[in-house]
Design goal:
31% of the residues are buried. It contains no helices and 11 strands. It is mainly beta. A hairpin with a 5-residue loop joins β5 and β6.
């Protein structure tokens, strides 16, 4: 069974930084698109950042210039570096994998809370 395990969430003050990691098991991410989504209370889940297998990236407008997605295929891991955090970044962050077959998988989520 495919597993995506996120880590790195927590509580940080506004203006601070956090780094998230997502380690995949029982799946090779090399040819997969990897992404981070988030869901705040009462809101729909939204795309934060995405990276294709060849390294193309796209970001939500709200995080451009502050967040950076990266991947280490050798470690089967995707990262999200979050800088200049704002209270509105508070949400549960989910790792997502989309394989070339169309299969997709989600992590269990990690809470990020930004205090003002």
């Amino acid at each position: 069974q495919v597993q995506l395990v996120e880590s790195g969430g927590g509580l940080v003050q506004a203006g601070g930084s956090l780094g998230l990691s997502c380690a995949a098991s029982r799946i090779m991410i090399t040819l997969s698109a990897m992404g981070w989504y988030r869901q705040a209370p009462g809101k729909q889940r939204e795309l934060v950042a995405r990276m294709t297998a060849i390294g193309s990236t796209n970001y939500a407008d709200s995080v451009k210039g502050r967040f950076a997605i990266s991947r280490d295929n050798a470690k089967n891991t995707v990262y999200l570096q979050m800088n200049s955090l704002k209270p509105e970044d508070t949400a549960v962050y989910y790792c997502h994998v989309l394989r070339t077959s169309g299969s997709e998988y989600w992590g269990q989520g990690t809470q990020v809370t930004v205090s003002s």
